[in-house]
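Retry 2 of 3 after timeout on previous attempt. Resubmitting structure tokens to design endpoint.
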């Protein structure tokens, strides 16, 4: 109600400096609580990373895929779109397939790799290696892998470290979708499920699951925000301003699909302010542990 009453329109820094700066700070707070690598934080000196609130994890996957696609096409040539290949598992959320449809990825080049009960339905590194090898032999270009921490259908957790190394070996963008179980990794007992996230290019978790925050509040972090900006930025005359052109501020319109954005952060900001001042992280951990 407070957010709606203020009616903040914070799509660029100049439209609401306070909302923009608060979002950057709060996403860094949340990243620190979940112990994300510093490369994902905006406050790191000379760093290129940062966090942004998306409406849903589906949006987070889409903007990550668009950034990865344009990065790959920039290196290969714009006529190479039909060669690009995306990987997930048969447990990966359907939003990855929809993102591929929107991004123009050939339907046959979206690979939902098979899993089985022997690995608790996690994506096998060996299965991924075989798929990449076959696709390279066919003249295709693997460029994006979506690994999941807590799949919707089976709560499977993909082995991020092994998958991250494979992604790096082949120059692929690794996105970690932790929308479902990412909040649980605030608990030290479960943080090991994120081991290997340091090899990812982007990471997403839903604060509106387990973090006592209203829908919609889906947090996305990237290591290189310029990849998002290059893929999603538009600057017609009516949006130009000295602050944006100075390249010293964040314009979140360039980190998302729509131009407009409302202020989603009030509840999360208050929660995390309490966390730092009143030792709330442990209370959140106890709450999460009590539901498992």
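Retry 2 succeeded. Sequence:
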């Amino acid at each position: 109600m407070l957010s709606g009453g203020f009616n903040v329109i914070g799509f660029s820094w100049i439209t609401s400096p306070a909302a923009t700066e608060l979002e950057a700070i709060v996403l860094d707070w949340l990243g620190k609580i979940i112990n994300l690598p510093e490369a994902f934080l905006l406050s790191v000196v000379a760093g290129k990373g940062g966090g942004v609130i998306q409406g849903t994890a589906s949006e987070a996957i889409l903007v990550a895929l668009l950034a990865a696609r344009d990065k790959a096409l920039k290196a290969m040539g714009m006529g190479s779109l039909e060669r690009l290949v995306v990987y997930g598992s048969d447990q990966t959320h359907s939003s990855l397939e929809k993102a591929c449809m929107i991004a123009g990825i050939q339907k046959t080049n979206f690979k939902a790799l098979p899993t089985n009960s022997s690995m608790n339905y996690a994506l096998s590194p060996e299965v991924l290696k075989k798929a990449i090898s076959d696709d390279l032999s066919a003249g295709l270009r693997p460029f994006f892998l979506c690994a999941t921490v807590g799949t919707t259908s089976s709560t499977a957790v993909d082995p991020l470290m092994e998958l991250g190394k494979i992604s790096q070996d082949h120059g692929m963008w690794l996105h970690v979708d932790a929308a479902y179980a990412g909040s649980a990794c605030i608990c030290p007992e479960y943080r090991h499920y994120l081991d290997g996230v340091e090899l990812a290019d982007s990471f997403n978790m839903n604060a509106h699951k387990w973090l006592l925050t209203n829908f919609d509040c889906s947090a996305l972090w990237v290591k290189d925000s310029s990849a998002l900006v290059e893929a999603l930025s538009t600057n017609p005359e009516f949006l130009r301003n000295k602050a944006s052109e100075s390249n010293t501020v964040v314009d979140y319109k360039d980190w998302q699909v729509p131009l407009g954005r409302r202020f989603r952060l009030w509840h999360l900001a208050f929660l995390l302010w309490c966390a730092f001042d009143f030792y709330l992280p442990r209370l959140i951990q106890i709450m999460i542990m009590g539901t498992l």
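Attempt log closed. The chain has a mean pLDDT of 87.
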